[in-house]
Amino acid sequence: MPKQEIRSPELAVPNGHFAQATVAKAEGRLVFISGMTARNKEGGVTGVGDVTAQTHQVCQNLKAAVEAAGGTLEDIARVDVYVRNMEDFKAIHAVRSQYFTGVAPASTLVEVSKFVNKDYLIEINAIAVVEG
After folding, report:
1. Longest CA span, the chain
2. What is the CA radius of gyration of the chain?
3. What pLDDT, in 10s, does the model give residues 5-35?
4. Is 38 helix (H, G, I), strand (E, B) or coil?
5. Do the Cβ atoms of 85 and 51 come closer than 8 Å?
């Protein structure tokens, strides 16, 4: 289900790969994707110590989850991003822009002190609006 970016002249231009807000028709199904980490299909952690590699794995995991629900990454309207180090902002957004190539999702990004696994550097959950 196509989403549209909403921009307000009263707000600063986003400083990363995200939209101030997105709108999607609510005629589809809402898909709530749990927090995805760099855990690969085999259960191991991809890219230990490498936030770029981990962000790629997280985005691939988001893609797999939304596709299993019948959608695409373009159907993701919102993400919440949790990182171990806010200094990784640019690297994370460089990877995100490779996966979210159309209208970027609305986004929140926060730094956290711990994850369930000490090797995780990033976790992203998402909400998508999928047709049918």
Report:
1. 46
2. 14
3. 888 888 888 888 888 888 877 778 999 999 9
4. coil
5. yes
Q: Which two tokens stand for residue 109?
A: 């990004």
Contact 37, 120 (CB under 8 A): yes
β-strand 76-83 against 106-111: which pairing, if any? parallel
16 CB burial (10 A radius; 0-12, 13-18, 19+)? middle
pLDDT in tens, 53-83: 999 999 999 999 999 999 999 999 999 999 9
The reported pTM is 0.87
**Could you tell me the sign of the dihedral formed by the alpha carbons of 105, 109, 114, 118, in that order?**
positive
Q: Give the helix/strand (H/E) hosting 54.
A: helix 51-68
Residue count (the chain): 132
Q: Residue 60: phi, psi to the nearest 5?
A: -65, -35
Beta bridge partners of 23: 4
State the Cα–Cα distance between residues 112 and 37, nearest whole angstrom.
14
